[in-house]
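In response to the reviewer comment on reproducibility (Comment 2.3), we provide here a single inverse folding case reported in full, input and output, so that an independent group could reproduce the run without further information from us. The structure tokens appear first.
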């Protein structure tokens, strides 16, 4: 049975637990990623029939040979000498600096501690389910995704100063999509370059957009991180990618002759405001002294290296090249030397767009950043720059912010279409940027007002009552969109009061029910469900036709894109929100389901859950089926049995509640249970026997007998519930063997996937009514009490306070 993606991730993270304690995440990540690397290349290439495999595994240097070292006192030394060094000798792209020292007592402990720690680490990757020999890296990159998962968590654990080796996957995807790269405009000769490639995630996202193997080259200053990048390329099935170590600005490695090599696509996330960028360079005011003519537009400030990297990128682009770069917001508005370069950049026409990102996205810094999109091919004809303020589109993820799928999609859609979206995006003419008012300052708030409009308090309405028509019916108000769809509802809710003011036509308490019960609102709901049903009808064949060998990422992309297209035209509901519900459910549950089906087909078999404690003792914890959990079987086939069980469970809860109330009521001093150390049947029966026929204790006796009756009732119900639950559990377990493939598809697609999405859609529709109700209530309550009445109330309350003070003998001065 194929491993679930989430199980793979948890297995990998367990390996990190084996290493914690002696080092921080920035160090133990090297060990874990090497284990992932050696396991993957061993599974994929050790027994390969390929005459010239991309990675050569020398005899005696595979993961199986590492397994043989478990428990041996020199395991660390042997991994270094018998596994790692032969790999380096056999593969020129690998270097010793790429790999950690497995015989370092300072990090791994000494003697037995090291042996146990490394043996545990090897054992985790030895699990039979971690078999990567059939990994389809070109489509469903399970290993690459696992690498991304680990890198994200390492970056989180490493802290602010050590998270720079990882660009969040979501940001990398935005950059890659901004380039316009696609399968139909690329070949194997298409080139992509990252001058500060880190662990290589940006380059790999570009390759993913290309949908095929293209030529990847990158340079990384940190030697260890460059090693991570090389391993990452191999794990993503790009073993021929070329990643070199060195300082890009002072010693660029990719050259044609004495000039910088140029590329079709360039991406980069340089170190923000690098204060040492010019170390090793001697430059004149006009950039003289640079052998690669990168600074002809001007020399960046010595303590601000952002434009130095940007100018290197521009110089590395072909005449038709495209590029995208992440830089801090300061590059958009800082003055002096940077202002001179920025003016030249705008005038060149190379700058195609700017996307302002949310703050706190990156692990190395909390400051907000932006993406600069460059395009040389159409520079001469460019008349404007596309500006997008996407700073408010994110979700909190621990102590960081993260772009959601809908945020990524909205950015890309808006950018590619050049759409004007109020408060979000507009194509700004170059003349406006160059005007005396703006003087080539590109700070986004100059061109996009993303602030939310504040309500204006209406003095006349406060004095004389009524709700301003400006707030209710103005074209630029939050309610305007509602009245376009629900004009009859507007007439139902309001009636004119005087020129420019209206009032509610019904009590405030009845507004919500009037909205939800209105025919127009019902028609709107029906229209939304019809769109969902039409999407379902179009996509049902795809879902039912899912089979082993299919590619989950292509599957979800088709579902999601059609769902977004279906709901984007629907007013009042944000199609991107509906799309996000599907993508959230994909990550939470559906992804694992589809990967299981793509590996094993429509198979649903319950598996025993066996837990092993630290002493090796196993315990049976029942059973489970990942594809079709028990509740779905019960709901479809054993609803009557579940109803009977629920009824008995309710009786049990009622009896238990009565018992608890009785004990609480009679546990005080001199009460029936006051002398009990512990209230149980034996103690109660003993006390009843002790009381006997004592007439003075009849009330106590009645309480005790009532308790005994309830206790026996509770005990009987517990046995009944347990028996019914066990019977239902067995029925459900045995039913899996009877399921046909069509029944499995119905349970998974209809009862599990589509039912969840339908519920999420209804939640969005409910929010439409809730939001409208809340806004109307807010306006109505604001002006419900006129100012003269408020003044009268204040006078009356002041008089009451004065009267109380007089009675208390207090003097009001």
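Designed residues, in position order:
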């Amino acid at each position: 049975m194929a491993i679930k993606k989430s199980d793979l991730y948890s297995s990998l993270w367990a390996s990190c637990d084996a290493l914690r304690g002696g080092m921080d995440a920035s160090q133990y990540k090297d060990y874990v990623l090497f284990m992932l690397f050696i396991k993957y290349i061993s599974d994929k290439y050790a027994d390969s029939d390929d005459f010239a495999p991309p990675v050569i595994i020398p005899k005696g240097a595979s993961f199986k040979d590492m397994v043989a070292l478990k428990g041996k006192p020199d395991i660390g030394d042997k991994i270094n000498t018998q596994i790692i060094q032969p790999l380096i000798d056999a593969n020129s792209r690998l270097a010793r600096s790429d790999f950690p020292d497995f015989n370092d007592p300072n990090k791994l402990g000494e003697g037995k501690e090291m042996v146990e720690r490394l043996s545990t680490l090897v054992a985790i990757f030895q699990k039979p389910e971690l078999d990567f020999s059939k990994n389809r890296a070109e489509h469903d990159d399970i290993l690459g995704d696992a690498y991304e998962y680990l890198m994200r968590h390492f970056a989180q654990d490493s802290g602010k100063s050590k998270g720079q080796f990882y660009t969040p996957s979501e940001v990398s995807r935005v950059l890659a999509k901004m380039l316009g790269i696609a399968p139909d405009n690329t070949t194997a000769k298409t080139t992509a370059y990252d001058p500060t490639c880190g662990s290589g995630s940006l380059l790999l996202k570009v390759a993913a957009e290309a949908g095929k193997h293209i030529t990847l080259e990158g340079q990384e200053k940190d030697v260890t991180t460059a090693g991570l990048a090389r391993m990452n390329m191999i794990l993503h099935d790009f073993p021929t990618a070329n990643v070199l170590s060195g300082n890009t600005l002072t010693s660029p490695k990719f050259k044609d002759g004495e000039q910088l090599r140029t590329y079709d696509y360039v991406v980069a996330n340089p170190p923000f405001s690098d204060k040492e960028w010019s170390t090793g360079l001697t430059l004149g005011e006009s950039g003289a002294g640079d052998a690669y003519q990168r600074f002809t537009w001007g020399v960046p400030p010595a303590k601000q290296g952002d434009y130095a990297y940007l100018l290197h990128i521009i110089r590395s682009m072909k005449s038709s090249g495209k590029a995208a770069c992440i830089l801090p917001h300061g590059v958009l508005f800082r003055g002096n030397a940077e202002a001179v370069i920025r003016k030249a950049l705008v005038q060149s026409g190379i700058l195609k767009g700017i996307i302002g990102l949310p703050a706190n996205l990156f692990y190395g810094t909390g400051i907000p950043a932006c993406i600069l999109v460059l395009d040389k091919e159409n520079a001469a004809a460019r008349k404007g720059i596309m500006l997008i303020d996407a700073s408010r589109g994110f979700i909190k993820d621990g102590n960081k912010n993260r772009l959601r799928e809908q945020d990524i999609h909205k950015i890309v859609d808006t950018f590619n279409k050049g759409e004007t979206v109020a408060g979000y995006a507009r194509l700004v003419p170059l003349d406006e940027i160059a005007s005396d008012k703006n003087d080539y300052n590109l700070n986004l708030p100059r061109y996009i007002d993303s602030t939310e409009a504040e309500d204006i308090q209406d003095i006349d309405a406060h004095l004389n009552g009524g709700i301003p028509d400006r707030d209710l019916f103005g074209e630029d108000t939050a309610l305007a969109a509602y009245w376009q769809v629900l004009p009859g509802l507007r007439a139902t809710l309001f009636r004119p009061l005087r020129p420019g003011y209206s009032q509610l036509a019904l009590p405030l308490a009845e507004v919500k029910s009037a909205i939800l019960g209105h025919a127009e609102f019902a028609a709107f709901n029906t229209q939304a469900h019809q769109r969902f049903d039409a999407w379902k009808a179009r996509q049902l064949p795809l879902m039912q036709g899912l089979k082993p060998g299919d590619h989950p990422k292509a599957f979800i992309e088709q579902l999601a894109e059609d769902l977004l297209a279906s709901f984007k035209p629907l007013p009042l509901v944000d199609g991107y929100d509906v799309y996000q519900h599907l993508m959230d459910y994909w990550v939470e549950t559906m992804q694992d389901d589809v990967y299981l089906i793509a590996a094993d087909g429509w198979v649903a078999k319950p598996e025993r859950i066996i837990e092993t404690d630290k002493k090796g003792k196993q315990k049976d914890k029942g059973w489970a089926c990942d594809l079709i959990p028990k509740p779905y079987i019960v709901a479809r086939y054993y609803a009557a049995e579940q109803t009977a069980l629920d009824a008995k469970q309710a009786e049990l809860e009622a009896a238990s509640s009565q018992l608890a109330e009785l004990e609480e009521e009679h546990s005080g001093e001199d009460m029936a249970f006051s002398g009990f150390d512990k209230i149980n049947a034996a103690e109660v029966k003993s006390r009843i026997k002790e009381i006997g026929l004592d007439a003075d204790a009849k009330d106590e006796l009645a309480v005790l007998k009532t308790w005994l009756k309830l206790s026996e009732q509770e005990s009987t119900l517990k046995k009944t519930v347990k028996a019914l639950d066990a019977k239902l559990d067995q029925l459900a377990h045995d039913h899996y063997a009877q399921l046909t493939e069509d029944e499995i598809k119905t349970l998974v697609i209809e009862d599990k996937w589509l039912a969840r999405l339908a519920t999420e859609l209804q939640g969005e529709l409910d929010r439409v009514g809730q939001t409208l109700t809340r806004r109307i209530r807010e306006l109505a309550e604001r002006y419900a009490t006129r100012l003269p009445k408020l003044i009268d109330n204040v006078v009356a309350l002041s008089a009451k306070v004065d009267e109380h003070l007089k009675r208390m003998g207090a003097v009001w001065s």
